[in-house]
Specification:
12 strands; Jelly Rolls; secreted; transmembrane; alpha+beta; about 375 residues; single chain; about 30% helix; six-stranded antiparallel β-sheet; elongated; 10 helices
């Protein structure tokens, strides 16, 4: 009786697990287990299994563009072929933000327009930068940090080939700021965990809007950008003020950390690397939630902070002016004392004098 129940439970569990596997995952698993290439081609029993439609693929999208990748995750025919491909679209001033491919070298071909692209391969390597025009391609070695930006005011398209069916993508900013906040703070020269949390909340998704110079030239306002690619949190890398219920998702907004800036609210860090009160106001203004940004893209907190700075500078200038005039008056008085002129004797009584004759000396006793 018990053994029958256990067998039924095992069968039900197996059926549930099998049902949870998508058809693509099941086909990929079968292809990986196939001993020969002929077996793999037989598993791909539809001619259409060898065609990938980039126009119908799921895109990774940001404020500055999008990309569709064909990898083993969504194109089983790539199994054991060591190849993947991405089609990217960058809008005006769009940037494919700094990232790496941990398992693949990339060769990127520009279809139209031109892009600015740079990379750093590893510690000690020089920074490589190129303007890549239409019809040209640039290579990015496996693991190198690289980016691409459309410097023009018209959309462009690029095609990237990668020599691994599962190349992987690691967005540098999101993953770096996804480390424990006190570790990030220490590695940035004792920045402070609250500031780290504020900056982390501002990091836009990949395919963001690029440099301000390009935006100004093309008349584009940066505005609000999506931030959905932030690192999930757990007890070991939680942000200040996060509870266990928030560990499976990133922090909600930058405003959240501003309201929990007391040192006691950071439960997962063993120490505060600095007194964040000295710079909290400035970074709080910079990391303000995008919903509080004014229509012209200027944060209210930044405006207030600038107004305070201007007022303080004005008071300082007034104090300097007062000190200058007091010093000037004092110097004028000292100069007048040094060059004293005896007043005229006109109109004053003269002191009587006695005229002495040559005949003899004056003798008051006579």
């Amino acid at each position: 009786m018990i053994s029958t129940s256990l067998l039924s439970l095992a069968l039900a569990t197996g059926a549930l697990a099998q049902a949870s596997i998508s058809p693509i995952m099941a086909k990929v698993a079968a292809l990986r287990d196939a001993p020969t290439q002929v077996d793999r081609i037989n598993i791909l029993n539809q001619d259409s299994d060898f065609v990938f439609n980039f126009l119908a693929g799921k895109a990774t999208t940001g404020a500055g563009g999008s990309a569709v990748g064909a990898t083993v995750e969504n194109f089983p025919a790539l199994v054991n072929n060591g190849l993947a491909m991405t089609i990217g679209y960058l809008g005006p001033c769009g940037m494919n933000t700094p990232h790496t491919h941990p398992r693949a070298t990339e060769m990127l071909y520009v279809v139209n327009g031109s892009i600015s692209s740079g990379m750093i391969a590893e510690n000690g390597a020089r920074f490589v930068f190129n303007k890549v025009d239409a019809g040209s391609a640039m290579i990015f070695p496996k693991g190198s940090i690289h980016f691409q930006q459309n410097e023009g005011c018209e959309p462009i398209t690029f095609v990237a080939a990668l020599n691994n069916e599962d190349p992987g993508v690691e967005s540098i900013a999101q993953r770096y700021f996804g480390l424990p906040p006190d570790v990030v703070a220490a590695s940035l020269g004792d920045l402070g965990v609250q500031e780290v949390a504020g900056i982390e909340a501002m990091i836009p998704d990949s395919f963001a809007l690029g440099t301000q110079e390009c935006l100004d030239r093309c008349g584009i306002h940066r505005g609000q950008q999506p931030t959905t690619q932030r690192q999930p949190r757990n007890a070991n890398n939680a942000l200040p003020g996060q509870s266990s219920g928030d560990w499976t998702k990133p922090s909600s907004t930058a405003a959240h950390w501003q309201s929990t800036s007391a040192p006691g609210s950071y439960a997962t860090s063993t120490h505060y690397s600095r007194n964040t009160q000295q710079t909290g106001a400035i970074f709080g203004a910079i990391a303000e939630d995008a919903s509080t940004v004014a229509a012209k893209g200027v944060s209210n907190s930044v405006v207030i902070a600038l107004a305070v700075v201007v007022c303080v500078m004005g008071v300082g200038y007034l104090a300097l002016a007062g000190f200058y005039f007091v010093s000037r008056r004092r110097r004028a008085a000292e100069k007048a004392n040094r060059w004293y002129v005896r007043p005229e004797m006109a109109g004053r009584s003269l002191v009587p004098t006695v005229e002495v004759h040559d005949e003899g000396k004056y003798d008051p006793a006579q």
